[in-house]
Design goal:
This protein has 301 residues and is α/β, with parallel strands linked by helices. It is built from eleven helices and eleven strands. An eight-stranded mixed β-sheet has the order 1-10-11-6-5-2-3-4. Strands 7-8-9 form a three-stranded antiparallel β-sheet, covered by helices on one side.
Length: 301
């Protein structure tokens, strides 16, 4: 597993191809302006409204098709998961007797289990229950067939996180950790506030949201061609799935408006390199942790 973000810094440009990735790579004004201009150009031509509506109405079909093609190969190797979010699988001696307290973790947009499966494999908590909901019925089907899936310690189900009412197998205010990893970006911006409020509703007091998603000017955004922009910073990929690119301020406002307290809100600017082809790829991700406050009366007791 790689060190937590910020520990591999590029101090000499001549060393750039010595490693596959560098953390917290600072952009100068020229690079920032080039990225801004690239986004301005690829978002000038907006997609026709009838096509925008099609991608909204048929979003589940596009994601089912995506998982049918990629199966369990996409984003499979999350080396960073437990270094960035050690709360997901704490060592028993550091978990305040969590092995006996029956923690509940809920991942929204669990896909084929790229977060759930590692938790089930590495967590030492005896009574842990991991829930997972995903928009794609195909993804849930693939996840259930994974040889490491444990139905005694996990329940997964189809869930439209944008729905007004969630059909989930647990009560409100009962979840210890909610996981949102590269999920909010796939949601129509008009429904993001609702999803954030639902997260807050199902977290128990003191519960934690862990978040990671695409940041503004990420390489993926700069590569879009004109005509793929649905609205500001919201695009449709070639496979019909959609993606939004966030700023720190948007994430802060989104979850604070839902009543959660910010504990971490970090822009992870990473320079990934292809040493064989001598290529540089600038990635930008937003990573955060937000906690549901504990009412003062509960603190007193």
């Amino acid at each position: 597993m790689r060190p937590q973000f910020g520990n591999r810094l590029l101090t000499d440009d001549q060393d750039v191809f010595q490693h596959n990735a560098w953390d917290n790579v600072e952009w100068d004004d020229e690079q920032e302006e080039l990225a801004r201009e690239s986004v301005r150009k690829n978002s000038l031509q907006k997609m026709p409204q009838e096509d925008v509506q099609k991608y909204e109405d048929e979003a589940d079909k596009f994601w089912d098709s995506f998982y049918s093609i990629h199966s369990n190969k996409f984003f499979k190797d999350r080396h960073w998961l437990f270094t960035e979010f050690p709360e997901l699988a704490p060592a028993v001696e550091n978990s305040e007797n969590s092995s006996k307290c029956g923690r509940k973790i809920f991942e929204i947009g669990c896909g084929v289990g790229n977060t759930i499966i590692p938790i089930l494999k590495y967590s030492q908590e005896e009574d842990l229950m991991v829930y997972g909901g995903d928009f794609s019925a195909k993804a849930i089907e693939i996840l259930k067939e994974d040889p490491h899936f444990d139905g005694k310690r996990s329940q997964v189900f189809v869930l439209d996180a944008t729905a007004d009412i969630w059909d989930v197998p647990f009560e409100e205010a009962s979840i210890d950790i909610v996981v949102l990893i590269f999920v909010m970006s796939a949601i129509n911006p008009s429904r993001m506030s609702h999803v954030a409020k639902q997260v807050a509703k199902y977290l128990k007091p003191g519960g934690l949201l862990v978040f990671r998603d695409y940041g503004l000017y990420d390489m993926a955004q700069l590569r879009f061609k004109p005509g793929k922009c649905l609205e500001e910073n919201f695009y449709v990929r070639g496979d019909g799935t959609r993606v939004y690119f966030f700023t720190q301020e948007e994430i802060r406002d989104l979850f604070q408006a839902a009543g959660l307290l910010e504990e971490q809100n970090h822009v992870d600017r990473r320079l990934q390199v292809n040493r064989g082809r001598q290529l540089k790829m600038y990635r930008v991700w937003i990573q955060g942790k937000f906690r549901k406050p504990v009412p003062k009366l509960e603190i007193l007791h």
